[in-house]
Amino acid sequence: MMRRALSALLLVFLAATSASAQLAVRGKKIYTMAGPVVEDGVVIIREGKVAAIGRAADVAIPAGFKVLEAAVVTPGLIDARSVVGLAGYFNHKHDQDQLERSSPMQPELRAVDSYNTREALIEWVRGYGVTTLHTGHAPGELISGQTMIVKTTGNTVEDAVMVPTAGISLTLGPGSLRGGGQSPGTRGKQMSMLRARLLEAKSYLESLEPREKKPAKAGEEEKNTPPVNLGLAALASVLRKEVPLLITAHRAQDIASALRLKKEFDFRMILDGGAEAYLLIDELKKAGVPVIIHPSMARFNGALQNASFETAARLKKAGLKVAMQSGYESYVPKTRVVLFEAAVAAANGLGFESALELITTSAAGILGISDRVGSLAVGKDGDLALFDGDPFEYTTHCVGTIIEGRLVSEISR
Amino acid sequence: MLKIACTLLILTLAQWTSALAQEVPHAFTGAKIIPVEGEPIEAGTLLVEAGVIKALGPAGKVAIPATAKRFDLKGKVVIPGLICTHSHIGGIGGGDGSGPVQPDVRIYDSLNVRDSGFRRAVAGGLTALNIMPGSGHLLSGQTVYVKLRGSKTIEGLCLRDKDGRILGGMKMANGTNSQRAAPFPGTRSKSAALMRAEFIRAGEYRDKLAAALDDPEKKPPRDLRLEGLVEVLEGRRVVHHHTHRHDDIMTVLRLSREFGFRVVLHHVSEGWMVAEEIARAKVPCSIILVDSPGGKLEAVNLVFKTGGILEKAGVLTAFHTDDWITDSRLFLRMAGLGVRGGMSREAGLEALTLAGAKMLDLDKRIGSLKVGKDADFVILNGDPLSVYTKVLETWVEGRKVFDRGDPDDLLHAVGGYGAGVDQDPYHCCFGEEGGGR
Question: Which residue of A has its CA nearest to B298?
Fold first, then answer.
């Protein structure tokens, strides 16, 4: 009885909270990314979801709805690869949780255990329309740990998280080489270490599978069950294709190694970075590998010495799936803003709508979250970004960000 | 014999051609000209001769000599060459770490003119730079002002005064970059104390030199460190001072008042907190806008509105790339972000050009399109502040140094396979343990 009363109270409370989330957004131009641009349109958000969308003349705004207006409305933006929330803006040891250096391969490290919801850079990117982040462990070790997908609000990581394990971060090439006689010291050693660990994970998986297929009788179970190994369990999920390997590689030879590894172990792969991906377009297409391209304005040195402003355009035109990222920055600026990076891609061969896809539909598709975010359609999350002009122009401002029907940023930036 | 004759002929021709490029007037017609000093001219004419601007005005108001080579720029936009007041291109490395004060070190002894950074700089429309060492020292050394003329040697790039002296400033820094293990200072007070002691010694040295007049017997022995500082005290070398935090900015103003040196404040992340004080001190600011705050403790309060606030306070404000902190190819973007943060469009463009020229004492020669000034300009295909606009050509002293239509230039403008000749990362703290404080 008591319990039922509490439930009823909770329901009333929830209803009261969501009442404030009844919101309508009018836009001179609404890029739904699910169909043609809606001129002079309106989006109705009810209970955090898009309830209606169309021309203002056709869609009535229900009484009592708060109404916001903007020149340009887009879906909430998706940053397809970030470390925001783990790599804090103070850039001191106490707020740098994106990379654990104690060992070169630690696939068991979960992003949810390092995510600081009060990190200032979350608010910063949210102010530029970013509503969804694929964030987590940074490139820099052979296997640095897991990534996750969050919304850019939430008091706790549990509030914020959409996908707790979205990928496992792996780095090939100079980015994960170790000095001082430690392994991996060469590219060859990187591959041998990875192959050995993936073979181990394969055995681990095989030792689990009989039990899962046919539950063992009492007594037998003990014998067949290997001791729990968090790292191998994480890699087993990769071999089962439940979780993709997010492989950071820039030089063509390192991208080729990643494809070789994929061929041997048959996992889902997302190429991260890909500065020289334009040299291997056919190979990437054949392997069906999507690319989360390096930020357009990444520094063109080291492994990125042959990077190009036009790579996103070249890959997209060739028919590859491409998304844009803010990536990892070790110094200043501590994070990039995916809106700005897509803007430079837009201006370098990609064009406006394709560039917008990099941070909306394409990103959602690659990350497997299209059912909820990336475009504006009835039933999808009420995540919107509002602008006072072309979102990619330097002088345009983001004037509002909405997540699940709540206005979470309203300072003009 | 024939071979020699041929060679001679070619040599003569080459000389003749290069002379021609300078001597034959060039007339650029039809573009919207934004001279920065003066009102924009729709469909204007720019006449260039012998490396300088001969005439400038609306079509029909500029007499084009019959011998002039004509360039039809209808639909294009012409702006002055961009000036970066703070760059680290040229493979100059991180700086010598043996001590915190090194006024004897000249950056031009470290510069590699073949560094790919120069190709990217002209692709971004840059025509003049202040290349600086540092900022991991209290005083990192002498900076150099260069023109991106394209030269085999650094001597060909350096700007000089009428006596042939190479022009440059002095790079200084306070705050956390220069706080390191001994012999570097550990606190802000120690940083200021070390610099005060150096300037006092330099003042004594200057007085001894003055007292000796021209008597070699009485002259103190040459001291390269103190000679550099004396140039600062005498105002012949402007201090370019890295400083972020509001209190560090005030410390620079305090030291500049005490020793009377001329100073430009650089970066100035918290300048918006003390804009009135900076304005009262009549000290200019060279600022940078990066895409997020933080990365180091001193930059956590960095905002896009700094330019607008300084403009309203009446502070002379320029932008810099700090290349490779930001890429020279995207320098126009800096003004776009400044305007986004509240600057006027005019001040935004001036901050890329004339304001920087003033800070380098070069505004009589460069920084705006004005008769008599060097013919340094950029041809764009649209609004200078639009992301979609491209630098089509960059001209320095009447010669084209970048042409987007040239495949090799395009490779450096856009990037791609073969563009990557590594630039040496310069920064003191990058990748070091506890670096980027």
Answer: A90
Q: What is the pLDDT of residue B359?
A: 98
Dump pLDDT digits (tens) for A214-230: 555 655 555 567 899 99
All domains in chain A, ordered by first residue? 16-75+374-413 (2.30.40.10), 77-373 (3.20.20.140)
User: For an interface test with A, which of B177, B179, B291 has the most A Cβ atoms less than 10 Å from its Cβ?
Assistant: B291
Are A310 and B414 an interchain contact pair (Cβ–Cβ within 8 Å)? yes
At residue A126, the pLDDT reads 98
- Identify which of B295, B387, B430 has the shortest CB distance to residue A89: B295
Measure the N-to-C terminal CA separation of chain B; round to a whole number of Å: 67
B205 with B223: CB under 8 angstroms? yes
User: Percent of chain B beyond pLDDT 90?
Assistant: 85
Residue B19 has pLDDT above 50, yes or no: no
ipTM: 0.92
* Residue B106 DSSP SS3: strand
Dist. CA A305–CA A142, nearest whole Å: 21
Beta bridge partners of A271: A247, A291
Answer CATH for B2-75 from 3.30.300.30, 3.90.550.10, 2.30.40.10, 1.10.10.10: 2.30.40.10
Search chain B and give the residue with CA nearest A302: B422
Q: Which residue of B has its CA nearest to A338?
A: B291
User: Hey, are the CB atoms on B423 and A301 less than 8 Å from each other?
Assistant: yes
- Joined together, the tokens standing for residue A176 give 């994960």
pLDDT in tens, A229-266: 999 999 999 999 999 999 999 999 999 999 999 999 99
CATH topology classification for B82-366:
TIM Barrel (3.20.20)
Which residues are CB-neighbours of A178 under 8 A, at least 6 positions away?
A104, A184, A185
B interface test, pick of A96, A311, A394, A412 with most B CB neighbours within 10 Å: A394
